[in-house]
Amino acid sequence: MTAHPDARADARAGTPEAHPDTPPTVRLTARDLTLRYGDRVVSTRLNLDIPDGAFTAVVGPNGCGKSTLLRAFVRLLRPDSGHVGFDGRDVGDYPAKALARQLGFLPQDPLAPEDIRVRQLVRRGRFPHQSLLGLWAPGDEEAVEEAMVAAGVEDLADRLVRELSGGQRQRVWVAMVLAQRTPYLLLDEPTSFLDITHQYQLLALLSELRDRGRTVIAVLHDINQACRFADHMVAVREGRVVAEGVPADIVDAALIKDVFDLPSLIVPDPVTGTPMVVPTLQGDRVEHPPPLPG
Amino acid sequence: MTDLRERPRTPMTRAPRPRRGPRELRLGRLRADLRTVVLTVVLVAIALGLALVGLCFGASWSTPGEVFAVLFGPEHSVVIVEWRLARVTAALVFGAALGVAGAIFQNLTRNPMGSPDVIGLDTGSYTGALFAITVLAGTSGQRALASVVGGLAVAAAIYLLSSKGGFSGLRLVVIGIGVNAMMTAVNSWIVLRAELEVAIAAVGWSAGSLNGVGWHHLWLPFTVLAVLLALLVARAHAMHQTSFGDAIAVTTGVSLKRLRLLMVLIGVGCTATVTAVAGPIAFIALAAPQIGRRLAGAPGVPLLPAALTGAVLLLGADLIAQALLAPVALPVGVVSTAIGGCYLIRLLTREVRRA
Question: Domain ABC transporter, which positions (chain A) (predicted)?
Fold first, then answer.
């Protein structure tokens, strides 16, 4: 997607903070989407627009269908009815490699072949850009090196992937998806096996990628991380979109109660000012009530 | 995209500077791992050396000088060209085909035990061939076709039995082992029911043998294998992409279902073609890809090392089979089973220890 130099400018203009009045550009949509996982209906007639150029976080309780939704976006799951559209065309109608040049996806637990080294793994991200025989195109090497630098794994390039720590390995996978050079990045719980430092590093990296014009869509477990990093939040419960919008606009105690069934207090994050969810459990006494707005 | 190198980055935990990684040879747009290239050269040299031994070896030994005079010079020798050269070439080509078939199925199942000889494709092909011999006229064309049909039927049965609740390599292997045992029983039954002469011929061939193979047996299988391998070369890159699991394979642009079907057809085709001519030669397909993988130090199960290792293994096993009780020539399958059996035991004990 390097062919659209204007797309990025449009994308930035479309993010909610930039111009609150203009509706965001939308390239990826779900229309009347009914998804089924085995015998279980995961979502019924779901509609969703993903704002272009923004960081969208999908949040919701375990088993609410957020990962399934992401898998439907990247064609890993065929919808029962309805469709997922990209640039107005059903994703199912794209040739496999053409779609893979638009949407990059990082699953929750990807498999690495035995004895593969970091650079070899990152190179496989170039697959959708390569010919039948997998010959190297001129831009491949540059894309691979750039992806490794961006994900901070260039020093690990010659190491065996199985010898790396969980945090390093996750960054290697991110590098692979980056080497794919897709305008859209979809990540299924990318922070789940990482310690807190690596979680924030990864989220900072994703925001940076967003700043450089990529559209990021991530399923996130931690609602506070979602509030802090996302421009656009989609709250899902039982396969329905309960609320979507800028986190500061939509996150309140009622929403958290509705989506997670958790009583809570919403306070401004002391660092960023974004909403911060503090659960209040039975028997808790609120020692420091939040300052009233205004 | 702008240059990402210029931006200040959050400090990451620095890993110690790694030792130099694998080196590469570059030829235009072609990249090759140096170790694989060296391995290829070495294996080709070993194969040629063994081939020379195979051409010299026989009831009466020829000197290498005599062999070269026949191959490249004016001399004529029916023994060397019609018998020994045909047999040596068959061993190399069939060994490579079995190695490739093993690599395909080990890639598909993501399991070192998922090779056609373990999951019953050899045995199924042999059932087809036995059917052609005992019921039909048993011409080489019928045998080849019936082998392919038998192999495909077994592959389809295993796939259907194991695909409930999603594709799983391990389940496929376990069910394949069961199917293999059943097809072995079916084969014994067919042989027992056959007329005595047919039964004797079939049994002599049941271990997998290159005894008595001549050029007239080979042109059809070689043509079929050439077509299958050409198809495979075109799809090898995509096949290796599947080693990252279905999700990444699909989202990087592999048409997974179509690719899997094609791979199964090529793998069964290779196995059945060899079986139709030489019977079910066991364990080459199991051992060659894994030995090749370790020698190459490459990720996944690479095809070229598997093919070359298979060629060397089968030719080596055939030479041992001829020499061991000379002048009686054993079926090569006896030797390959003895070698491969040891390997399988090692593999199993390691898997058990890991589990």
Answer: 28-263
- For A175, the domain range is 112-181
- Asked if the model's pLDDT at residue A22 lies above 80, the reply is no
- Chain B residue with CA closest to A149: the answer is B5
Same domain membership, residue A116 and residue A216 = no
Q: What proportion of chain B, given as a percentage, has pLDDT over 90?
A: 39
Q: How confident is the model at residue B198 (pLDDT cuts 50, 70, 90)?
A: confident
pLDDT for the residue numbered B17: 47
Distance from CA of B9 to the nearest CA of A (A): 8
The encoded tokens of residue A250 equal: 């939509």
Tally of domains within chain A: 2
pLDDT in tens, B61-118: 888 888 888 888 777 877 888 889 999 999 999 999 999 999 999 998 888 888 898 8
pLDDT at A180 over 90: yes
Average pLDDT for A219-231:
94
Q: Does A210 lie in the same domain as A169?
A: no
Mean pLDDT of A127-147: 85
Residue with tokens 């080979």, as numbered in its chain: B218
Write b or e for each residue in A254-291: b if 16 or more Cβ atoms lie within 10 A of its Cβ, otherwise e.
Answer: ebbeebbeeebbbeeeeeeebbbbeeeeeeeeeeeeee
* CA B336 centroid distance within chain: 12
CB contact (8 A) between residue B1 and residue A212: yes
Residues paired with residue A55 on neighbouring β-strands, in sequence order: A216
Q: Which residues of B touch A71 (CB under 8 A)?
A: 247
Q: Contacts of residue B18 in chain A, CB cutoff 8 Å?
A: 155-159
- Comparing alpha-carbon positions, the chain B residue that sits nearest to A117 is B299
Q: Residue A16: its pLDDT value, please?
A: 44
| Euclidean distance between CA atoms A272 and B335, whole angstroms | 72
Mutate to test the interface with B, among A84, A103, A114, A153 (most CBs of B within 10 A): A114
Q: Are B175 and B114 in contact (CB under 8 A)?
A: no
Helix (H, G, I), strand (E, B) or coil at B51: helix
Q: What is the pLDDT of residue A206?
A: 93
Among B18, B240, B252, the residue with its CB nearest the CB of A158 is: B18
pLDDT digits (tens, 9 = 90+) for B138-173: 777 888 889 889 999 999 999 888 877 667 778 888
Residue in B225, B226, B196, B221 with CA at minimum distance from that of residue B210: B221
Torsion of CA A181, A186, A192, A194, to 10 degrees: 20
* CA torsion, ordered B227, B228, B234, B236, to nearest 10 deg: -160
Q: List chain B residues with CB under 8 Å of A133.
A: 233-234, 237
Residue A4 is assigned to a structural domain of this protein: no
For residues A175 and A193, state if they share a domain.
no
3-state secondary structure of B90: helix
For A141-274, strand residue ranges (E) read 184-188, 215-219, 232-237, 240-245, 264-268
Task: Tell me A117's DSSP state.
Answer: B
DSSP H helix total and E strand total for chain B? 14, 2
What is this model's ipTM? 0.85
**Segment (H or E) for B31:** strand B30-33
A1 found inside a domain: no
